């Protein structure tokens, strides 16, 4: 499904290069739910952007269903994203002047989706939003906005869901709804890569990757599989199966 192979990403900072990812590798299969935790600024969002074909790495490969996304043209990569990836963001990114129904339907603007309107209504009903379908985002609660964003991410029946802190602004009840939906998507054969600070993710994810900062950056070219480095620090990544010792 998703394979990140020896990915490296560096940003230009005011005091020199800021290394976000160093030789980072990850394999995510169908039916698998992987959660990534770690402190703010440790490269988690960079990882999601690279994995989603939105940020070209300086080195390494990102394969989705066997296709190397950054070997594709910009247009082909956009088509691949539209067909196979759903994004869920902490800030929702809903279109403010569109109704819930029309926000859920926005992926259909990028590609023709069979029976999109009926599928959108099914998703809206699934997430308890039927009564809110004609409302614009400003008229929704925070939980309703996130459920709308999740329904939108599922409209194109993606192979992969990438979720960036989707429970960060939610109360416990709405957070549980989102995590349950992500777990159900994985059980249905999809793959989920979740970035989160939420400890509840441990109860639903199949694997947890914990990124921790240390004090040194390894020399350039040093291979450290499963590690990330940023801002003059290194983050050690440990993978723990669900139910394992944390």
Brief overview:
The protein has 6 helices and 11 strands.
* Domain unit count: 1
* CATH overall fold name: Rossmann fold
Share in β-strands: 25-35%
- Going across the biggest sheet, name each strand in turn: 6-7-8-3-9-11-10
Quaternary status:
single chain
Helix content: 25-40%
Q: Would you tell me the structural class of the helices and strands?
A: alpha/beta
Mean pLDDT: 83
CATH superfamily label: P-loop containing nucleotide triphosphate hydrolases
Q: What's the SSE pattern?
A: EEEHEEHEHHHEHEEEE
What would CATH call the class?
Answer: Alpha Beta
Q: What's the tally of helices?
A: 6
Main sheet? 7 strands, mixed
For the secondary structure, the number of strands is 11
Radius of gyration: 18 Å
Shape: globular
**Low-pLDDT segments, ≥5 res:** 214-240
Task: Describe the protein's architecture and organization.
Helix content is 26%, strand content 30%. With 246 residues, it is of the alpha/beta class. The chain has one domain: P-loop containing nucleotide triphosphate hydrolases (Rossmann fold, 3-Layer(aba) Sandwich). The protein has a 7-stranded mixed sheet, with helices on both faces. Helix 5 runs parallel beside helix 6 (172-187). Residues 214-240 have low confidence and may be disordered.
Write the layout of secondary structure elements.
Layout: E1 2-13, E2 16-28, E3 33-37, H1 44-51, E4 59-64, E5 67-68, H2 74-84, E6 85-89, H3 100-105, H4 116-126, H5 142-154, E7 160-164, H6 172-187, E8 191-195, E9 207-214, E10 227-230, E11 233-241
Parallel strand pairs: 3-8, 3-9, 6-7, 7-8
Antiparallel strand pairs: 1-2, 1-4, 4-5, 9-11, 10-11
